[in-house]
Amino acid sequence: AADKIRLIPQDFFAELCEQIIQHLNHKIPGVNTAELCQRIQTSGVEINVGDLAKIANILSFIFSTAARNNLSTEELVTTLGSAGSTLPKHAVQVIRHVWNEQGKAIAVSEDARNMATMGQFVDLKWKLGVAMSSDTCRSLKYPYVTVTLTVADPAGQITDRSFEMTIPQFKNFFRQFKEMASVLETV
């Protein structure tokens, strides 16, 4: 991971650290590593989303452990150095700065830790389509609905999950959402 961290420019690494702190503070649902990875690649750095997600998980672990143990900035930097860490200097400097500026705000109550074991719904998008034909069937004219759910897993990684439904399946899906909305209005 240290080799991959060396590749990331300092400004992008700082942005990643700040997003992780915001996620741990429950200010954002997660870190969109796919979008950040694309921007890093556009800047000319070769890194893939999987590697960036691993780095984000490591940083999340570092920050949440530091918060749980109520470490000061100097204690965190000393711990990173004494753990045989091979983190590059620029990464340690960024971690020091971000932790010094925003780290103390991380709420690590027992309730917050227990709630973090479940993912969080971020967005839902849908579109209506019609399959006109295929290799095996010349005339389908089959309507369908594509639904894309954006969710943040407990580690804060934002992912999209897509699925297709027939019109009757979508009507049932919609009916269930209406039922949920009416129940929520009574609460």
State the gist of this model.
The protein has 187 residues and is an alpha+beta fold.
Task: Describe the fold and architecture.
Strand 2 (142-152) and strand 3 form a beta hairpin. By secondary structure, this protein is α+β, with helices and mostly antiparallel strands. A three-stranded antiparallel sheet has the order 1-2-3. It is 54% helix and 17% strand. The protein folds into two domains: 1-116, no CATH class; 120-185, Roll (Nuclear Transport Factor 2, Chain: A). Helix 2 (10-24) crosses helix 4 and helix 5 runs antiparallel to helix 6.
List keywords for this structure.
single chain; 187 residues; alpha+beta; Nuclear Transport Factor 2, Chain: A; 2 domains; 3-stranded antiparallel β-sheet; 3 strands; 17% strand
Topology:
Blueprint: H1 2-7, H2 10-24, H3 33-42, H4 49-68, H5 73-82, H6 89-102, H7 110-115, E1 120-131, E2 142-152, E3 158-165, H8 167-186
Antiparallel strand pairs: 1-2, 2-3
Percent of residues in beta strands? 15-25%
Q: Characterize the largest beta sheet: strand count, sense, and whether it forms a barrel.
A: 3 strands, antiparallel
Order of strands in the sheet with the most strands? 1-2-3
Number of domains: 2
Unreliable runs: 109-115
**Radius of gyration, in angstroms, nearest whole number:** 22 Å
N- to C-terminal distance: 47 Å
DSSP strand count: 3
Number of helices: 8
Protein name: COMM domain-containing protein 6
Organism: Myiagra hebetior
Family: Belongs to the COMM domain-containing protein 6 family.
GO molecular function: NF-kappaB binding
